[in-house]
Structure formats: C-alpha cells, structure tokens
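Example record

The entry below shows one chain as it appears in the dataset: sequence first, then structure tokens.
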Amino acid sequence: MSASGYTTAAQPLIHDLEESILDLSVEKIRPSFLAAEYGVDPSAHLDTHAVLYLLTADGNSIELNMGSPSALTDMGRMIIGQRTFRRHRHCFKHWSLVVRPGLTVRDILRAIQEERRHIYQFHRSGLGCRYWVRTVINDFREHGFFYLTQNRPLRRFMKGVGYSYPRGQAPEKSPIVRGRFL
C-alpha cells in the first residue's frame, strides 16, 4: 500500500472494449487539450484537461483519459472508451502523431499496462494531466510506436504541452505539474 493508502499491487488495466475494437489499427495518436466544459473543475485545471485519442481505422477513436481527481482523492481514474468522433467538440488544441503501420489498440493498452501508467496519483493541487499525457507519449516513443520520420509533430507536441491555452488568450508558458505513478 502506498503512503496515500492506495493499494499499488499489480492492478490490471480495466476496460470494456470488445475484442474487435482491440484489434483495430491505430492511424494516429492525438494528444488533446479540452475546455472546462468537458466536465473538468476549472479551478483545478486552469480551463484545460489533457487526454489522448487513438484515431482508429474505422473512422472513430478510443479515448484514453486519466480522469480528474475528485474532491475526496488525488488518485486518478483511467477511463478508456470508444468514441464516434475523432475530435472532441470541446477540444481547442491537439496534435496528430502518425504511428507505424500495424499498431493496434491492444498494443497501446498493453504498453500502458506494462509501464503501469494506469495507476496515477495527481499532484495534491489536482494538477497533473499534462504530465500524464507527456509521460505516456514518451513511453509510446520508446516502444517504437511513432514513425522516425515524423519527429516534427512529436517535437511540436513536446513543446506545446508546456503551455496553457486559456480561452480567448495567447498560450501561456505553464510548468508541467508532476503527479506520481504508483
């Protein structure tokens, strides 16, 4: 058990995706910043919540979202869901990262499980979603999921994730607040 009282024994990555969805090819990985209307507490996230979308060959997407902490806990909750869109209506900033051919949803979920990225404790301030997304993207890079020739979009993301994008204002440099992987 961790200092937070949360059990950290090998926990499975839980989802309800069907086998046919797990075998779908992923065309791009899209880190996205969503506006507070998405259901994020604006005071905790400065009007921004970072999530990942896997753009799949069927024209839809899989959302990978380390859910915001509630007022009762700082432990994140991994939310994995199939979506019928490729860009969330509350998305105001995203990057499209091209992946190698043959990469499947199953491959990506396996990497998250292996790296234990589904067990995350937000910073006590409630911040940490950008750190989670950046870390997971780095893991995917180390697993060889991205085309080596597609470094420019990846570099743009790595720079852009260090900014906050307040509505109606210019991007502001914003330190990435670290949570903890347990």
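Notes for this example: The chain has a mean pLDDT of 86. The helical segments are 19-22, 42-45, 105-114, 129-142, 151-160.
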